Amino acid sequence: MSIFFDSPISDELVPEGEAELLLANIGITEGISNSESGDYRQLLAAVHDVAQHILHLPDYIVRADTDIDTDIYPRENIRRPPPEDQNYGHAWAHKFQIRGSPKGELLKGKTVCLKDNIAVAGVPQFFGTDAIPAWTPDSDATVVTRALDAGADIVGTTICENFCNSTSSFTSAQGTVHNPYAEGYSAGGSTSGGSALVGGGLVDIAIGADQGGSIRVPASFCGCVGFKPTHGLVPYTGISSGDAISDHAGPIARTVTDVALCLDAIAGRDDFDDRTLGAPLHGSTCYAKQLQSSVAGMRIGVLVEGFEHRLVDESVKATVLKAASEFEKLGATVQQVSLPLHIEGPAIWTIQQRIAGTLGLMGLAHGRRGLFSTAFEATRRPWTNESFQKLFPSTKNTIINGLSLMRDYPGLYAKTMNIAQQLRDSYERLFKEYDVILMPTTPFVAPRNLAWKRGDSPMEALKASMGITTNTAIFDVTGHPAISLPVGLSPSNQDDRVRLPVGMQLVAGLWQEQKILDAAFTWESANDWKKFGPLGIETPRLGVKL
């Protein structure tokens, strides 16, 4: 193959005027002259030849972290469960059994399920959609290999929301997931199925992914402990990406101890994922061993702006403040703190995610080193009228928003990321004074699931998720570690006879996972969260009234 081509040009591949048309699409109508047109057409044909050559080379399939194959960890009884074999509506994507290493200690005896955007060799993946066919990965995600090496038994993949693009639990094309505390109510998203199964006690640990709150929101709604670690601490190799800046993977469990054990098992540098270049070596962390049930001397900040949003329900506010006051009883210094830029978090995340998310959905994301799913890319292929129509409105809206923003505001992404860095730096300064800051994970408890179907109003479909990520999404952009800890039960706004879990979010400085885990473990050890709630509780006053 030559790089300088003089072979005939295919009119089908590169029609006459193609260079001019491509430039016209970005508003350049006089960029090349008639005399230059033929040369640029020839050069286009050359680069198409290179593209075809690359496409015909064999793909590079590597077993992340190790050279094991599926004979070491055989997959048993892979099946798409029928309705009678489901839980909480449609929580399972596929059931199967992969037995962990008998030498593994950290997760020995633990059952683990995986969000259905995490690759498991030989198991079809839906990604919450029917807009494209399911595809079957050739290798396991790094977190899968590490969980098995740690002794976990992986028992299935669980429903995720449509393209992981919603914090509701009715958007998956594979079915609605119900809250384990109240049928008909949201389990949250996009790690909906795993959170429901863990919250309901059917599985010990779920490994999920979080790009706007997709671990912490469902954990909050389902009464689980959900941890989004520092960006890059847990490898994303083999997990379908929405945007490399906000990609986070982490555990959901019923206890802080199980979260810490899972984090020890899956965290650490992965040579295939450049997100992890700053992470400690795999196997070097000891989060579980170092858990301390003491916050003596710890400084905890109650973030005023995290409570002030108009959507924050009074009962949720009261419950989280009462939980915060428990830290005082346990020996911590608890004070209200203010960071006004926090309220810009939703706007920053929206612009960053719409633009970056659109590029990802269109197969245009770039600038990262790693191993990528060519099977997913081949299955997704360019969008067609038929496939686009099958997308849930949240994904359609992302693409429409992103295309518009990139066309009309070409410098917007750069400024957005500058302000995101300003906010990251502002949090870091705050964490020099406080070990942990806290706020509600979600502004309200789980709402009812919507009985939405194609053809219904897109606005109605999107309203169900609006405002849920007010306090969660920004920490995906800044990369700070954050946990959702269940701290009480609160009445539903739609039926006060229904009591649903309330989550308290604890956030710490970059790479300060141990501080969060210690604070959460101390609170959990001293309290029965199911006995907490706003009924008859006077809102505690911490410094100044919120």
TrEMBL record:
SUPFAM superfamilies hit by this protein: Amidase signature (AS) enzymes
A Pfam family of this chain: Amidase
Amidase domain sequence ranges: 101-517
Species of provenance: Pleomassaria siparia CBS 279.74
Lineage: Eukaryota, Fungi, Dikarya, Ascomycota, Pezizomycotina
Protein name (record): Amidase signature enzyme
MF (Gene Ontology): catalytic activity
InterPro entries: Amidase (IPR000120), Amidase_dom (IPR023631), AS_sf (IPR036928)
